[in-house]
Amino acid sequence: MSATRYKRLTDIDLDADINTIPESRSIQSTLIGFILLFGFVACMIFLTSVQAHPARVSLQDNGKNSPILRTRSQEKPRKRNITKWMDNYFTADESQFLNCSEMIKNNKDVIELYVNNGRMKLDNERLFELPMDCPSIKNRIYGDMPSFRPLKRPIAFVRTIYKIYELQEALLSISYHPDNVFCFVMDSKSTDRLKESVRIMSSCFTNVVVLGKEYSLNSGGHGQDPAHFDCLKTILDRKWDHAIILQNFDLIIKTPYQLSDISESLNYTSIMGFDHGFSYRYNTKAKWTPAGMKLFKIETGVPNEILNRNLIVRKSLNEVIVSKVFVKSMFEKLNMDIIIKLFDDNDYYGVDEMLVQTLYENYLGLEGQMESNCTRNHNDILTRMTHWDFSGPNGFDKECHSKWKRHGICIMGVEYMNELIKSQQVIANKVMATFDFGTIACMREMIKRNTAGETPNTQWLTSFPQFREMQQKANGTYDRNKFDC
């Protein structure tokens, strides 16, 4: 797509470090602009001449196979093929080039046409006044969706949010099912409009919870663990089998029915990556034995080998899939406030990627926990799809399909739709309404059509050691001393 004009966006994110495109690119863009303007004027002169003197140009004869002379300006644009749901947030003119079916096929011409005519973006300066009565909110979230079928295993979605209500409404719409549970925690620094709107939305649903307490969330990961675990504790008595931990820019790319099937395959297994924690992200001088940190509520009956063994700090990503069996056991047996505070330390950066992993991968006798103390590293190939790119600063980046990145991660514009629809993973990060709302809209369209990629099967899940351990326990063949991580 060399002809695609990727413009610098100054409103991508209020807290992002946006860097300017080199001056040479600006000069090049100016020259291209003059050339396009000249071509447009020439084209208009030509068309005027044709209309004034039609006999001078032979457009076609009466033969069916005769050639037709058409200029680019005469070609009808490929109109959007999405439902009227988009009209809640954009004018028809703004969304006219969003052709999700062709973008999913990676039709570069269609993607180029959409990008060159301006991506669909939402920011605080460009929002409609949405009607906020419950019938209107419900209609936007699921009014055009197919009738709901019961879920075998409901899912809980635990999400920290801080930006743009319309984005949160759209993300809720993608995963909404009356059997599922949704818990939101808001950043204390969010706008009053966001806070008020999210609370109004929550009041319209019995299965949407918004915590009264707000947290100070930042890019260092601070506040994420306390917020997520407050949500988990709040919804613990509700009906769900697995919880998916999410942040503001995470997009669910599986249907509610696919997620229910995945939960059924996982049984009580949780899914996360296996890696060693970086020593510069936590206090290595702290007492890391369960006894030293007073981790257990009741130490009586806990084996000494567990109480006095140093925990190995582990990490993966903040986004994990945790079973309710494991979550319930943590709250019942552990002083969670102590270990949450230990990790959520303002002296360190990236602190939100170690808590769940450390508790899950160090055997503590918890239900639903992995018993084998695996020390090998394993990537999480189920939970989050991410296009990493650590070269260079935030902003324009030619290595990203969308040509834009934030904090070392390529932002997933519509250029990623073909990959998203093929992925076996559950979440995509990052999607940003201030960059390209089209990705979110197209994924909702796929969810609506129940065509959101492949559902991982049991054989594929055996790549996870915790899943293999569960299978062996079910078959009566598990031997902790012989288990191959």
Descriptive overview:
The chain has 485 residues and is of the alpha/beta class. It has a domain at 275-380 and 459-475. The protein has helices at 23-52, 100-104, 108-116, 134-142, 165-175, 192-203, 224-234, 256-266, 304-307, 324-333, 336-343, 355-361, 417-422, 437-449, 458-461, 465-475, and strands spanning 155-161, 181-186, 208-210, 242-246, 251-252, 275-276, 314-315, 321-323, 384-386, 395-396, 404-406, 409-410, 427-429. A five-stranded mixed β-sheet has the order 3-2-1-4-8, sandwiched between helices. A three-stranded mixed β-sheet has the order 5-13-9. Helix 5 (165-175) links the parallel strand 1 and strand 2. Helix 4 (134-142) packs across helix 5 (165-175) and helix 5 runs parallel beside helix 14. Residues 5-35 and 45-77 have low confidence and may be disordered.
SSE order and pairing:
Layout: H1 23-52, H2 100-104, H3 108-116, H4 134-142, E1 155-161, H5 165-175, E2 181-186, H6 192-203, E3 208-210, H7 224-234, E4 242-246, E5 251-252, H8 256-266, E6 275-276, H9 304-307, E7 314-315, E8 321-323, H10 324-333, H11 336-343, H12 355-361, E9 384-386, E10 395-396, E11 404-406, E12 409-410, H13 417-422, E13 427-429, H14 437-449, H15 458-461, H16 465-475
Parallel strand pairs: 1-2, 1-4, 2-3, 9-13
Antiparallel strand pairs: 4-8, 5-13, 6-7, 10-11, 11-12
Helix pairs in contact: 4-5, 5-14
